[in-house]
Amino acid sequence: MDLTRIAERLEVRFGTGTNPPLRLALYRRLERLIAENGEHAYLIISQVAADAIGKQDEGRYFAYAVVRRLREQGVLRPLEL
Description:
There is one protein chain. By secondary structure, this protein is an all-alpha fold. The protein has one domain (6-72). The chain is built from four helices and no strands. Helix 1 (6-14) crosses helix 2 and helix 2 (20-37) crosses helix 3 (39-51). The N and C termini lie far apart (36 Å).
């Protein structure tokens, strides 16, 4: 399990979509989550990446689903005001 260069690998796999700065920020945030939470976060992200295979817009599906799944699992918490 390679926990390095996550943002770079996600960019290659799913591209940058219609809003590159936002998508790249997501990839960097996912990389930080893996650094902070380790294998648990990595497994969630890799499962969502696998689920995206064959979807009409794999990158869009991944971006939406990964945030939702990380929140459901308690890895990603909403920002406090």
